[in-house]
Amino acid sequence: MATWYTNLTLIDGTGAAAQERSHVRVDDDGTIGAVESGADTGALGIGGDGADVVDCAGRFLTPGLIDAHSHLGLASDIDATMRLDVSVAETARDIFEACSDALDAGFTTIRDVGGLEGPVPDLIRRGRLRGPRVLTSGPVQCQTGGHGQMGPRFEPTELFDCHQIVGLRTASMLSDGPDEVRRNVRETFRRGADLIKMCVTGGVITVGTNPSDTQFTVPEVRAAVEEAEARGTYVTVHAHNNAGLLAAVEAGVKCIEHGSEVNREVAELLAEKEVALVPTLAPGEILRERSQKVRERGGQGADAYLKQFSVTERLIAGMSEVVPLAREAGVLLGLGADITGPRQRERAMELVLRAKIEDPMAALVSATRDNARICRLEDTIGTVEVGKVADLCFWSESPLDDVEVFTDTAKLALVLQGGRAVAGTDGTTAQTASPWVQPALS
Fold first, then answer.
1. Same structural domain for residues 51 and 113?
2. CATH for 181
3. Domain of 161?
4. How many domains does the structure of the chain reveal?
5. Residues near 202 by beta carbon (within 8 Å), at least 6 away in sequence
């Protein structure tokens, strides 16, 4: 049966001003059937059409949130994961918990770019696992010795594939040369990936790499792009320095993760080539907290950790400067939390950090409409508009007046996913495994 949610303040995700006295009808197929504002329910005939009516006075409605840079497959302690000190049972348990936590935080869609295998999103789609809609890149494509080859440095590379947990998580696949890239990308799609993620520069958490390194050649990246385009999808790349970023753009990628050194000239090129950018700020905040504890504790490994933090802090500062530059140039700007380990329940922290650089409305639009565009789902989710899937969040306070509301699950009154209540504090029973199947998105 259809349901009217009435008397709420609508923040529709398009960037338009909030509309008080708004009413939204969710039809029984899980889509938005009507959006009305500026009139009372009697004048609109609400309640006389046979639909249920829920009075939402005092509530603020936004689209369901989208995280465009997630690592559900790296939900266990990242240091223990790199030491290979986490069992398959614990890995699975942590992944499933992270999926559930995402819904509780209002994230109804996740773009995973860190190795989650296709069967996990499939379990969610079939109602066997509680979690958001998940698009996954499957195994990250890395070069031998590049960012993403995580594990003991003393271990021979030929043993790296032994760390796969096929059907659950394969953090990365190693390729050297266009032919190996092509084969691994084909294998990644065979195993259920929706898009491809490559590392074209070094990173922070992979020992032995540096963000200033460039990785993969233009022909190698182009091989991945050709395979993705043959399937109607795209390649996104981890890129910190501009040399690696520009090589990837030359090869035809459609999205950049991080982009911590993007300057005005590069931003204008991204806009011209219609390449999206997903800055990620939350890891710096988490490392800042951890570094303070390391300083207090000291001991073996403290110096190396603090050095890692200083590099990360520089990259985060760079991304903070990139956001206004990219916005001014007209780049499609997404929002991604990039949190690994057990703190993934705090992914809404990314909206708070973005709102310190630009206003809360801009952060929200990036986390809804613009992330939907990056996920190529803009016709079905991301805004509160007639005909779209009813992924909706009802807040007890305005997140535009106080952006910290996004991080307070006690103020998230109700979460709808495909029109169905899945989380929230308004007496809603959060759904667990059930026969319900998520509405298909074209």
1. no
2. 3.20.20.140
3. 65-374
4. 2
5. 146, 147, 209, 210, 211, 212, 213, 215, 240
Closest residue by Cα to residue 232 from 259, 196, 275: 196
Whether the per-residue pLDDT at 430 is higher than 90: the answer is no
pLDDT digits (tens, 9 = 90+) for 341-353: 889 999 999 999 9
16 contacts: CB under 8 Å, gap ≥ 6: none
Both 52 and 199 in one domain: the answer is no
The residues that bridge with 116 in the sheet, in sequence order, are 169
- Residue 51 sits in the same domain as residue 92: no
- Per-residue pLDDT band at 431 (split at 50, 70, 90): very low
Clarify whether residues 205 and 279 are in a common domain. yes
With CA atoms as reference, report the closest residue to 407 among 111, 135, 65, 5.
Answer: 65
Question: What are the helix (H) ranges across 56-156?
Answer: 78-82, 88-104, 119-125
Beta carbons of 203 and 213 less than 8 angstroms apart: no
d(CA 212, CA 243): 9
Cβ–Cβ contacts within 10 Å for residue 197, how many?
Answer: 28
What is the per-residue pLDDT across 28-54, written as a single tens digit (0 to 9) for each?
999 999 999 987 877 777 877 789 999
